[in-house]
Every structure is written in structure tokens, then in C-alpha cells.
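Technical appendix A lists one of the benchmark inputs used to test multi-chain prediction within the project. The record comprises two sequence entries:
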Amino acid sequence: MTAHAPALAAFSDQELARIRADFPILSRTVRDGKPLVYLDSGATSQKPYAVLDAERGWYTELNAAPHRGAHALSEEGTQAYEGARATIAGFISARADEIVFTKNATEAINAVAYAFSNGAAGGGGGAGERFRIGPGDEIVVTEMEHHANLIPWQELSSRTGASLKWLEVTEDGRLDLSHLREVITERTKVVAFTHASNVLGTVNPVDAIVARAREVGALVVLDACQSVPHLPIDVADLGVDLLAFSGHKMLGPMGIGALWGRREVLDAMPVFLTGGSMIETVTMERATYAPAPQKFEAGVPNAAQATGLAAACDYLTTLGMDRVSAHEHALTGILLDGLRERPWTRLMGPDSLENRGGAVSFVVDGVHAHDVGQILDDHGVAVRVGHHCAWPLHRRFKAAATTRASLALYNTPEEIAAFFTALDSVPGIFGIEV
Amino acid sequence: MDLYQELIIEHAKRPHRAGLREPFDAEVHHVNPTCGDEVTLRVARDGDLLSDISYDSLGCSISVASASMLADLLTGADLDTARTTFAAVHAMLTSKGADAGDEAVIGDAVALAGVAKFPARVKCALLSWMALADALATTGANLSEESHV
């Protein structure tokens, strides 16, 4: 993955017009006819026709339960579902049998956390010593985690007696690695951290953390929710063991996500959800399980959504993830410049484009984020306000809430200008001197 | 925009009767988990009278202003008045904009009428009112049928 500012150009006006025409929702208006300015793609992205058509196409052409039955529809549906798996795997340069479909990244991370507790209890069919955890062992996360990559580990800690530790965040919104060797130790069984912060925008130094985790034999779980939609990703380059992402943040449908795992890790990993289609043999007393990834996919899957997500990957691949990344990088620069010109705002996160994604969070001194968001909304500008499911991080920065603008490939410089025009009306309304 | 009436901004900037005071008979802490707004609210009773309502409100202008208006309206009021006021504010805020509120009953809180049109903000405006209902319930007085939920 490229760490520095990409050399490629942002999308031209013509390219953007073509791209935006693919997203029907972007032409709608809100709040009495105002054009929608959607700067909340960090929460969920909008969807192009290609994705909507693929999802609908599943139901109009293929609908049958994959991997069950021998009729024509089931056969074609199974091929489409497995084809989607291969496409999504290819998108992150992985093998198809290393992709486990989940509902979203939250479920993917929970599957790993529960694999550890099932491993600790001697269940789940996993053979791996790597998934046994108990008192004296340690789980490491960071202070900048989304609740989805914090609470499953808190729960694992309380179920197994393993302790929870974390890397702290510096004032400028980077991970503090100065105590890396004290935080990740011989007792560490698993290190779970975010690739890109959904609040700060920080892109974390995966290499340094993986290197330390390797020294102590800890498993590395990467929350890639905010990186897979925005950066070219090659799982082999990252060097992690497991990686989770959500489809709906990368132009795909809601209800589909994936857990990628190194083949031998998935083989050793105990199962979480159990039931139909994840089995090999079943008697009244016990069952044996299918090989990964099937053993992690109990129940009829979200096949329509999987084909939708594959269509999203194809769409992004056609545009080129290096171009997507370059475009969002340029817009992030405009956002950071604009906030710097407004000293009545305070950025929370790195004020530099180096190793930085397009989530830009800030406070307006003296005005609560909810009120800022409401004024922006009145101008048709959609942003996220609150703690963005990262409450401990907000405590760290002594902010009850922040306003976050988050970008996607379809955003334009004109939308950033509209955002600042709306933001400039905030101080006056709340009687703040600027 | 219509939502931010001058009265709301004034109450939010200089909330009336703010701060936590002694003595009190009940203290509660309520949060709005979607945005992190918090209020700690104390109530002191003298028989049927709410002799003091004190609070520490950390949140958006709507939630702070609403706490300030509540303290203005109900400090020194009796339980019957508190029930009538609570019901009127609750009805207005949950009316989706159909109920403009009666200034004779809810005073400055009529300025919150616009909140009802923004479902995401209704909880902000109701936060301190639900906290008061909860606090009173622990002293054995119910503000409404729903006040203990």
C-alpha cells in the first residue's frame, strides 16, 4: 500500500459527472429542494446502478439457496455466489477460499473473538493452539478503535480472564508506538487494530505493529472497514492474519461483509455460528465441520448482497483504486485547508495528508456537534455528528462529540465548497465571535 | 433556520439555575447514547412541592436549553403542575410538529416546538424531562404512566 500522497490526478469534472450519473441518489434533493451534499460515506456509502442491478438480478434470474439442491437455479446461484467470492477476493489480492462472507465487519470481528472463546472452552472444532486464550494472556487493541473492534475484545476478556491492553493515541491523532514493546508482549495472543480511523482519518503503520506481533507470536486482526473502500489493498503486503471489512461502506449493499483470513489461520480457527451447510457429518451426538470458508457460513447466505458487493468491487476496479485514492486524497487536502483557514474550528486528527484517509472530524468552539450538523443539514449537507462509535477516543480528546465529513470517490470540490459555505453560517447563529 | 429560536440560543448560552445543589432527595444521570449528551439532575421535594431542581447538562443547545426551561418552569411547582407541564411538553415534542405547544402551560418551552419535526433531536429535548421523571419516581412520585420507562 502506498504510504505517501499518490501521484495520480483527482477525477476530472467530466469523469466526476459520469461517475455521479451512476449513483441515482446523488441527484435527489433534501430539505425543501436543496441538492444533497453527501459527506457521510464513512457511515455508509451510496450505491451505483451496477450494484443495485446485480442485487436485483440475483432475485430476478438466480434466486435459490446456494450449496443446496441439485436443480438448475441452485446450480447457477451457487456459481454466482462463489463467483462473487472470487471477485471480492481478487479485489484485495486474496485467494477465494480465504474469504468468509459475514453480515458486516462487526460480525467478522465477533467471529474471531468468539473463535477465541470457543477455543478456550475446547469447542468450535478448531485445532489451533493459537485460539486458546485464558488468564495470564493478553489482548491488545488501540485507543482509536471503533466500538466494533473494542467491545468484542472486552467481552472476550471478561469471558476468558485474559487482560485487555491498548496502544494510546498522540495529540496529533497518531498511534503512540513508543511503548509498543511493553504493550505487545510474550503474553499477547491477539492484536486487533484499525487500518484507518473512522474518526481521525489516520492510516496506521501496519508494518511496525505486525513486526512486533510476529516477534511474540500474536495473531493480528485488522479492521479494514475504512481502508478497503478507499485504498488499493493487497493482503499479502499487509502481512496481517485476519482482516474485516463491510460491503456497504464500499458501494455494496447493506448486510454483506467479509472476513479474510490466511488459509492456515482459517483452518485452525474455531467456528462461531453453527447450523446448516457448515457441516461435514452430523449425528445426534456430534458434528464435524466443512473446511473453511464453508465452516464459517452457517445458514442460507446473503447471496444477493454478495453478488451486489462483487459488482461494487468490479465498479471500483474499473475506476482504479489508485485513482479513487488520489481523488479522495485531493479532496481531503481541500477539507484540511478549509478548516485551517477557520481558527474557530479545531481538527481532531492529523493535520497533514501523510498516511491519512478522508475522514475529517472537528469541533466548532462553543457549539455542540449536534447543532453544527443540524445547520449543515439545513443546507442539504449530510455529515455525521456524535462520537462516531468511538467514545473512548472522544474522551481522549476531551470532546463530547465531533462533526465528521467523510469522503467517497463521487464527492466533488464544489461539494466541499458548499460544506464550508454552510459551516460559515454556524458561528453567527450561535453568537460565536470569529 | 426555524429550529434555533432566539430563546433556545439564550437558554443554551446561559442556562438558568444550572449547577448541582444541596440538599436533594434524588439524583439521576441520563445519557443520550447516540450522541453522548449527558445530564445529571437533582430534585428536592418539600411534600408536594419541587423545592429545587438542579442540574449539570453537557450537550447540544437543544438539550441544555430544555433543561434550563424545565428548571425555570418547575422549580417551586407542585406535583400536579409538574405532571401537567410534563404531559404538555412531551405531547408537543412527540407530535411530529402537529402540536405547537401552549405558552400558558409550558412557557419558554414553546420555543422547542420546532424540535418535533426532527426525530433525531426529540431525544435531546426530552433528556432532562425524562431525567426529572426518573428522579421523582425514586422519591415515590410518578409524573406520568410512562415516566418510569
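Residues 119-138 of chain B form the longest helix (20 residues). The longest strand of chain B covers residues 37-46. Comparable benchmark entries are summarised in Table A2.
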